[in-house]
Amino acid sequence: MNIEELRAYCLSKPEAAEDFPFDDDTLAFKVKGKLFALISLKKWEAGEQRINLKCDPEKAVAYRESYPEEVFPGYHMNKKHWNTVVVDGPQLSRKFLQHLISHSYALVVSKLPKSQRQGLVS
Predict the structure, then answer these.
(1) Domain 3-117 carries which CATH code?
(2) Is 14 helix (H, G, I), strand (E, B) or coil?
(3) DSSP state, 40?
(4) Is the pTM here over 0.70, yes or no?
């Protein structure tokens, strides 16, 4: 996936929004103000096509073991709950990458207060 496809997929999630809360480089995708994906634009432009995604801790370990070249503990994130995923990794299909993004979004939605989850598809 190129960056525009990745961006479009993230923004296709109900009430997903993008912003730059940290600096002009880090593109963040949020739902109800909570992060579910991060991309460093400078690194992307330099050829490091990666995205940080939230992940269930047990699944995070399984993904890291199954895809050691493409999925690893989240860079500058809580290593238990976040993975860094190499978007252009040879073993990761577009469908699997979309699954990882959807899982991240759903995990964040599941932790929102019940009143905020209403109407959000996870």
Answers:
(1) 3.90.1150.30
(2) coil
(3) E
(4) yes
